[in-house]
């Protein structure tokens, strides 16, 4: 625990203060980057530090730290070289780049060179597929690399140089990058403006500008709110939601039916429902003989959908609550169709041998012939059993 400096502790407090008091555990990810910035990896002491700061136990912190590959479990070099070997980069030569570096550096995945300069890893998509094969050094991109380019980059790093990434700021060490990932600004003079984004990355933005597409009301210069401002805005939003809910309930109460139901003695019945009794249905209360169909707003989605599709048809949705299906709702199938169906059923008995019904050579052709024969017999006024023995 003592390995962490007062500066790191102050930064930890700053990170936690970014989150609402009852959401402080959300600060775990940046805190893990912070402890990694101090030690070069998330050590047992780092796990303990995060747990203590956030009031979690070490198992909870460890579960997160071991889930994400950006948190390292053992000391790393100054430069983390990640080579994408995922599908897109792989077909473009990413695996050759990685294999060449393995051979050149004499280390494998997640291993560090003896001089402590380079940690090598293969990565599963670095989110720059349009620039493949891609490799990153401390998460800054080197696009469209080949084995020779990759070797040149690591050799320059080991010689103390700082090759310029294809995009983004100039390289810093992995510990310095971890501070940025914890949410603190890159304080190097002009570093942020060093490298422009790639053309493919800007394609969507350019298209939006060409077609005059923008997000209504969005101001890219909107300042990030302080926690106090965010809390105040949240409280105001909650109050507005509660007021809207209350107004809605009051409006519903006003629209509720108020016509009194006369009791046997002519006195108005109470509008409420006595405990233990069912509310009276409309036809019960009024003596109406109208069909048992609910008011439009109470119709089930099935009924509404059926009516939308067939506005002129009687509502005929089986099992729809509150709906009576007329006994003649389903028109009888044409006779020819019945005969064809019967012939098909007779020709496709359950196989009984594990085969699906009808899995028999010539069954389809025979079915068609039987259907035709049945139709012909029907046209001739036949009413007896057909060739299949199925009673019509
Ligand atoms: S597959 Fe390599 S960056 Fe996506």
Automatic annotation (TrEMBL):
Q: Which Gene3D superfamilies match?
A: Glutaredoxin, NADH-quinone oxidoreductase subunit E
Question: Which cofactor(s) are needed, names only?
Answer: [2Fe-2S] cluster
Q: Where is this region: Disordered?
A: 214-392
Which residue stretches does the UniProt record annotate as biased composition, category Basic and acidic residues?
Answer: 226-251, 294-310
EC number from the UniProt entry: 1.6.5.11
Top EC group: oxidoreductase
The question of whether Iron is a record keyword is answered with yes
First and last residue of the signal peptide: none
UniProt biased composition (Low complexity) = 340-354, 383-392
Q: What is this protein called?
A: NADH-quinone oxidoreductase subunit NuoE
According to its UniProt entry, this protein's organism is Micromonospora costi
């Amino acid at each position: 625990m003592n390995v962490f400096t007062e500066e790191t502790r102050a930064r930890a407090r700053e990170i936690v203060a970014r989150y609402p008091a009852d959401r402080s555990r959300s600060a775990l990810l940046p805190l893990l980057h912070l402890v990694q910035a101090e030690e070069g990896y998330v050590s047992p002491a780092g796990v303990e530090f995060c747990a203590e700061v956030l009031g979690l136990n070490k198992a909870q912190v460890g579960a997160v730290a071991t889930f994400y590959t950006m948190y390292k479990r053992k000391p790393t070099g100054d430069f983390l070289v990640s080579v994408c070997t995922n599908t897109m980069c792989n077909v473009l030569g990413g695996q050759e780049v990685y294999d060449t570096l393995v051979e050149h550096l004499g280390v494998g995945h997640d291993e560090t060179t003896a001089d402590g300069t380079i940690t090598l890893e293969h990565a599963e998509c670095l989110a720059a597929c349009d620039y493949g094969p891609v490799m990153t050094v401390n998460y800054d991109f080197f696009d469209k690399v080949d084995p020779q380019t990759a070797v040149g980059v690591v050799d320059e790093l080991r010689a103390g140089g700082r090759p310029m990434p294809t995009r983004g700021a100039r390289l810093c060490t992995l510990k310095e990058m971890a501070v940025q990932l914890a949410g603190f600004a890159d304080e190097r003079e002009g570093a942020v403006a060093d490298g422009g984004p790639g053309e493919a990355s800007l394609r969507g933005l350019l298209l939006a500008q060409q077609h005059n597409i923008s997000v209504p009301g969005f101001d890219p210069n909107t300042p990030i709110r302080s926690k106090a401002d965010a809390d105040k805005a949240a409280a105001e939003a909650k109050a507005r939601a509660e007021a809207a809910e209350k107004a809605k309930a009051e409006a519903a109460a006003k629209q509720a039916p108020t016509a009194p139901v006369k009791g046997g003695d002519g006195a108005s019945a109470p509008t409420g429902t006595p405990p233990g009794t069912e509310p009276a249905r409309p036809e019960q209360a009024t003596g109406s003989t109208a069909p048992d169909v609910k008011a439009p707003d109470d119709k089930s989605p099935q009924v509404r959908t059926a009516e939308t599709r067939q506005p002129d048809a009687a509502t005929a949705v089986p099992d729809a609550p509150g709906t009576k299906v007329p006994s003649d709702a389903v028109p009888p199938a044409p006779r020819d169709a019945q005969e064809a169906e019967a012939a098909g059923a007779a020709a496709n008995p359950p196989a009984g041998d594990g085969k699906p019904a009808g899995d028999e050579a010539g069954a389809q052709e025979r079915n068609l012939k039987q259907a035709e024969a049945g139709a012909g017999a029907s046209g001739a006024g036949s009413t007896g059993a057909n060739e299949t023995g199925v009673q019509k």
